[in-house]
Amino acid sequence: MSRAAPGWLNPAIKHPKLRAALYPELPGTALYHYTDQAGLLGILMKKEIWATHTQYLNDEEEYKHALERFQQCVKLKVHEAATLPIVHALEGFAKKAPRFPKANVCVSSFSEKPDSLSQWRAYGAPGSAFAIGFNAESLAKIADAQKIYLARCIYSEADQATLLDLLVEDCVTFSLALTAAAAKKDISGALELLNVFAPIMKNAHFRDEHEWRFIARRVKPKELDFRRGRSSITPYKVIPLAGVKIDEIVVGPTPSRDLSRDAVEQFALKFGHLDTRVRNTHVPFRSW
Fold it and tell me: Which range of residues forms the domain containing residue 254?
């Protein structure tokens, strides 16, 4: 399914390839969120999903990966710059970019793969894991209504380099269109684009996850909630899912296959998901 960019999209994003990266064509299948019992219960009962602050994700190098590539691209552009204003804009980006990991950007993760061994291992609880298959079109409507992005992660270094090159060009164009005083003040506004694209630029080693993400940017401190984490409390943003359609729920590896499947079927029915298919995993994996 093709998607049109909404009116609230950052005006600095001009290039069609950048817009296409944030609004890719939706897959013909559901998008799966892997979780444990608590996650399944909370998502269906409360009709919400939690988007974790990007600085508290499992992969601590994730944002650093995108930032390093952005700064490399900026340095190359400085050498190629034709005018002094362009050089000044690029130098401003290079100076301010390292501060942007502290911005409040939150993400929720989904996968195109409905029954993945690596996902069961990484995100499910031993003996009790689930993959909630959200209808992709339904998720996209929720994202657009709440002014958050639903985008596919990019793993190819060549594709990332192309997008970063275009991203820097759009940042420069946006800054040069402002007055000198406004441009100096609004470098952060242009650089906000980095916080939009960084969460979808992932290391190639994770390509088997086939990940999509909700990306909530400009999250205010008062919009954050907090949960227990492994080494610190973890900030997150609640994303309401009222009206979302769930195509299927896959019950992960468990010693109680029939009992677990039957319980999930009744649970889904109770909370209005009358057409949701519930099935067991086909992966022969023991985690208990």
Answer: 29-280
